[in-house]
Write a structure and sequence with these properties.
Largest sheet: none
Structural class: mainly alpha
Number of domains: 1
Oligomer: single chain
Strand content: under 5%
Helix content: over 70%
């Protein structure tokens, strides 16, 4: 398995694990709107990450190479939909904005953890 596939697999799993852990901790330690913010933000960013992966995989597979414009249009459509959902959640006072920010940070945290994991593996591989 290549390093890219390993990283992607780690990030996808870590996204769901971190979302579950953050939601679980929020449920027992914070208010319901804070917990809902964590879960909503985590779902928004995790689904966006998955859709971006699918778009890039389809557009970069050799039989059907898509144009850059098509990929960018799909990206901006997802971005606008996400922004509208976030706006509705905050304006409707359904979620706590701080909880939403924590939830939206899940993919970034997963990427950071995957990077640290690979760096650790490379350091120990070179030491042996």
């Amino acid at each position: 398995m290549s390093i890219q596939q390993r990283l992607l697999k780690f990030i996808v799993r870590a996204n769901w694990i971190l979302l579950a852990m953050a939601g679980f901790i929020g449920y027992f330690t914070a208010s319901s709107d804070f917990t809902l913010g964590i879960i909503a933000g985590g779902l928004i960013v995790t689904i966006n990450f998955h859709l971006l992966y699918r778009t890039l995989k389809k557009s970069l597979t050799p039989p059907q190479l898509a144009s850059t414009n098509a990929v960018l249009i799909k990206y901006y459509i997802r971005f606008i939909i996400s922004a509208l959902i976030i706006l509705l959640l905050i304006a409707g006072d359904y979620v706590n904005p701080l909880g939403l920010i924590i939830g939206l940070s899940i993919v970034v945290t997963s990427i950071l953890l995957a990077t640290l994991y690979e760096v650790k593996n490379n350091i120990f591989k070179e030491a042996v």
